[in-house]
Amino acid sequence: MEATMAKFSILNVLSRGSPAPNTVNFAGGLAFTSTAKLELVSVLLTTFLEDEFYRTEQQTTAKIRELIVKVGDPRFVAKAALYARHTYGMRSVSHLVAGELAKSVKSARWTKAFYAQVVRRPDDVLETLGYYLAVYGRPVPNSLKKGLGAALARFDEHQLAKYRREHGVFKLVDAVNLVRPPSTPALSKLVRGELAPAQTWETKLTQAGAAETTAQAATAKAQAWGELVRDRKLGYLALLRNVRNILTHAPEWSGELCRQLADESAVRRALVFPFQFLSAVEVLKQGNLSGAADVMAALNTAIDHSLANVPDFGGKTLVALDSSGSMAGRPQTIGSLFAATLVKASGADLMLFSDDARYVSLNRRDTTLTAAQGIPFISGGTNFNAIFQRANRAYDRIVILSDMQGWIGGGAPVEAFRDYKMRHAVTPRIYSFDLKGCGTLQFPQERVYCLAGWNDRVFEMMQKLDRDPEALIRDVEAVALAD
Question: Of the four listed, 22, 40, 275, 384, which is most buried by Cβ atoms within 10 Å?
Answer without folding.
Answer: 384
